[in-house]
Predict the structure.
Amino acid sequence: MTPPEIRSWLIDMDGVLVHDDNAIPGADRFLARLEELGMGFMVMTNNSTYTPRDLAARLLSSGLRVPEDAIWTSALATARFLRKQRPNGSAFVIGESGLTTALHDAGYVLTERDPDYVVIGETRTYSFERVTRAIRLVASGARFIATNPDPTGPTPDGPVPATGAIAALISRATGVEPYFVGKPNPLMVRSALNALDAHSETAAVIGDRMDTDIKSGLEAGMHTVLVLTGSTAREQVDRFPFRPSQIVESIADLIDDLH
C-alpha cells in the first residue's frame, strides 16, 4: 500500500507510462486520478534529446495528456545545475534541441572556444569531429558534464549508443570522468521536486529500473515504487543491495491506493 501522506508523484516515462509510442494500460486512468485529486506530479526522463513540448506531444499521441510544465528531463536538470554552479557560463555541447534549448534558457552561451564546460547529452548523430573537439577541450581544462550515465538507449531495432557510452569514450581519451546529473544521481530527483514545489517526505518515485529510478528515489529519501512493465523482472530485484518500498505489476495497480 502507498502511504497516505504521499501527495506528489515523480513518474518515469519509458517503461512506466509508455512502451515506444504505446501507452501502458491504465496509465491514462492513473494520471486522470491524480488530476481529479489535485495531486502534483512530474514525468521524468533521463533522455535529454527532446524538449518538454516535444515529449508532451509524443505522450498526447499515445493518448496521455501531460502538460509540458509537468515534464522534467535530464537536460533541464543539467541546465538548472549549471546555472546555479556558474551563472551565465558557456558550454560546448554534444546533444539535441532538448539540451541546447535548456542551456539557452538558463542563460548559457554555446561555443567551441574556451568554454567553461563540455556538456554531453543524447544525440542521434554523434560526430567524430565534435567528439574529438570535446576531448581536446576537456584535456585543455574544460569541466566535463554529462546529462545521464545510460550507456545505451532502446529503439524498435535494438539498442543504440547513448550518453554514457560517448562520455566513456571521452573519459578514456582524457582520463577525466564527467559529473552525471541525471538518474541515479539524486540531484535529478531533487531538482524535479523543486520544480514541483514538493518535499521528499510526501512524494513518491515510480520507475521501472532499480539502478536509476529506485536508487535515486531511495537516496533522495522518498517512497519508491517499482513497476514490472519495463526493464526489471521481479526475480531481478533481489540481486540489488536495496529494495523499493513497493513492487507492483503496473502503474494501474496504484490507482486504488490514491486518495
User: Anything to note?
Assistant: Residues 75-180 form a domain with the Rossmann fold fold (CATH 3.40.50.1000).
